[in-house]
Amino acid sequence: MEEDGGSGSDSMEFVAGAETSAGAGTNAGRNRGVGAGTSVGGGGGTKLPHVLQKSFGEVQGILEHNRVLIQEISQNQETRDADGLSRNVALIRELNTNIARVVDLYGDMSGSFARAVAPRKTPQATSRALRGPAPPALEGSSSRAGVLSS
């Protein structure tokens, strides 16, 4: 039943969100192109937060595990074995839970990314905001105050 080299889901129960030997921990080298070292805002100085990189790895691990689950579900469906078909119920529930976890992770990553690229307020701008708006300029005043025009 395990034509993919013995990586069926019978060997280890996958818990969404937990790092396992088949989960995000083993994918650290594979997801380097997704967000690792990517600059935000074109300035080149700010790196994407580590949480985004970790979340991408976790998503990758979950999606790879889902691929294995789908293969097993398909095999059980093809054999039409009563035990395999019964097992599909649990496998599909696990798949559904994993998909919900991926949706949550993408939502968390979206918020983290938005915070990472949001304009930062300088201390000067913050103190200005606390004092309120600057008073309106007087008419006729200019930087050349005291200079008479002829």
TrEMBL record:
Keywords: Biological rhythms, Nucleus. Pfam families: Elf4. Residues 1-46, 117-150 are annotated as: Disordered. GO terms for cellular component: nucleus. GO terms for biological process: positive regulation of circadian rhythm; rhythmic process. It comes from the Eukaryota. It is found in: Nucleus. InterPro entries: EARLY_FLOWERING_4, EARLY_FLOWERING_4_dom. Residues 140-150 have a biased composition (Polar residues). Residues 22-31 have a biased composition (Low complexity). Residues 32-46 have a biased composition (Gly residues). Residues 46-121 form the Protein EARLY FLOWERING domain. PANTHER family: OS08G0366300 PROTEIN, PROTEIN ELF4-LIKE 4. Belongs to the EARLY FLOWERING 4 family. This is EARLY flowering 4 protein. It comes from Zea mays (Maize).
